[in-house]
């Protein structure tokens, strides 16, 4: 017995290795950069602390024994040494006395508006860093507000930017790999389908010759049996034509949908289990024409119906209902009384290789969906399903 296996969704070691490498690189970059950020933050805080000490020394230099040389050093070397860290100094009355490395943000605006913006900036600074107190020799206390420098902020954003780039590259690599793999699989299936159609040609010609031979001797061969054999041979010709059309753009023609579905269901009803009650209902006008490829569309109906019969294990009801939709669209509902589809499998039923049966390739519904959606610009989906009660598939054909 041929066992079913998933030829599309096998675990791919290369994908796992690629994903792990990207994850490791991204995580390592993030951790290493965060470590550098913490070190730079500590250094910038030391600079601010030095700035605070300088301010304290400067305001305490009014004592008689102060050395003017030391004061000059404080003002020229320490206070002006900070070229990157934004700083705002306020006195004991919370009045702004000095600001550093933020002048460019407030050029050309009125003083009142500048003051309001600086107050807002101080509030933002206090959220990221608590203000550092400045203690004067007279017991009064001001505060220095500060925030990270532009360089530090840029470094902080770097790992996230790098992680985003790596993620984008990973996604692109995955899509490229999957696309090339699908293209290769499609080429294999197209080649296999066309070769199968070619191989079927010789035995079918022989069978047709045997049918003609049986018709030439009606006394020996029952005409009804010959007719049924001829129908099966014609069915093989239809299957061969289907396989030959795979990989090619099909020709769509105006067909009477009621007749197409009725003829095919009549044929199929005699070839499935006699314990399956098959019925067809239609609310379409008798002469309703729809643009389809008859050979491929019958294949869709066949695949869904055969899956339904398998789901019912050869016993139950199979109902087809054709209904009109707004804007000249048409829907075909195919309902069975089988085992239903679980929620876990609902998203997998159209996946290539997915099958709950012990035999088969799991390609029937995949092909059906492709024929409806890619070739007929329609839709095929599970309209409803309940475990233990049955499933309804819906095919939608648009007017265009």
From TrEMBL:
GO terms for biological process: phosphorelay signal transduction system. Pfam families: HATPase_c. This is histidine kinase. The chain crosses the membrane at residues 12-33, 157-177. Residues 195-400 form the Histidine kinase domain. It comes from Spirosoma arboris. Its EC number is 2.7.13.3. GO terms for molecular function: ATP binding; protein histidine kinase activity. Signal peptide: none annotated.
